[in-house]
Design brief:
This protein is mainly beta and 135 residues long. The protein has 1 helix and 11 strands; from the N terminus they run E-E-E-E-E-E-E-E-E-H-E-E. It has one helix spanning 105-114; strands spanning 3-7, 10-12, 18-25, 34-39, 46-51, 58-60, 68-73, 78-83, 92-99, 122-125, 129-133. Strands 2, 4, 5, 6, 9, 10 and 11 form a 7-stranded mixed sheet that branches. The chain has a 4-stranded antiparallel sheet with strand order 1-3-8-7, with no helix packed on it. A hairpin with a 6-residue loop joins strand 5 and strand 6 (58-60). The chain starts with a strand and ends with a strand.
Amino acid sequence: QLQLVESGGGLVQPGGSLRLSCAASRFSLDSYAIGWFRQVPRKEREGIACISSSGDRTNYADSVKGRFIISRDNAKNTVYLQMDSLKPEDTSGYYCAAPNLHSDPHEWCEDVIGGDFWRYEYDGWGRGTEVTVSS
């Protein structure tokens, strides 16, 4: 089981920026597509960004497209989510996850954005980091 740890959350004013990190220990991430998700209490988890194992393909939800950028540094075993132009509605818990390696990564990334990611098995979910956008 992958151990994924998110960091970088915090309190930021509207229009500000944060960079979240998703780091893995014990195992290498370089074979995994990685997704970022967010969830507020009493609402469903939302997939917002996904990146292929090599980093050459990315997908974004419309709600974050043009404002968030997902990237990875496989040498550091870390995936990032750069969040710019933050809005109060971006306030949420943010989570990263890696699907089971038997999953088709391209199909999984599409389903991360499409909302159908619950049908997959996962090799790891992080515990999340909180982002609050408020003045």
